[in-house]
Amino acid sequence: MNLLKNGCRYSDFNFFPDNWNTTRASLKKTWRIEYRFYDPEFKEKYPKGYPKVIKARLNRVKTLEDRQQLMRELRDLERDLLKTRGTILF
């Protein structure tokens, strides 16, 4: 679990497919990043955390190398946004 300055937290990122960063990753599967965001103000509404799914047109990229690069960029961007903004937009 990753803590943020404002009391919010988020789970580790889950990547799909699991082997997205290898040369054997399938372009036929749906690629995405998932994690859960926990905000104390929304504890009653989302007791298990808000499920966040990032697809960002990943599956429109046709080459493995480009898709892996986009996945890395999205991961880094989302992590930076969470650390600087401290929250997500519901």
Descriptive account of the structure:
This protein is an alpha+beta fold. It has one domain (2-85). It has one helix spanning 64-85; strands at residues 2-3, 9-10, 14-16, 32-38, 50-54. Strands 1, 2, 3, 4 and 5 form a five-stranded antiparallel sheet that branches. Strand 1 (2-3) and strand 2 (9-10) form a beta hairpin. It is elongated. The mean pLDDT is 93.
Write the layout of secondary structure elements.
Blueprint: E1 2-3, E2 9-10, E3 14-16, E4 32-38, E5 50-54, H1 64-85
Question: Which structural traits does this protein have?
Answer:
24% helix; alpha+beta; 1 helix; 90 residues; 5-stranded antiparallel β-sheet
What is the structure about, briefly put?
By secondary structure, the chain is α+β, with helices and mostly antiparallel strands. It is 24% helix and 21% strand.
Strand content: 15-25%
Structural domains: how many: 1
Order of helices and strands: EEEEEH
Instruction: Tell me, rounded to a whole number, the average pLDDT.
Output: 93
Structural class: alpha+beta
The N- to C-terminal Cα distance equals 20 Å
Specify the biggest β-sheet: 5 strands, antiparallel
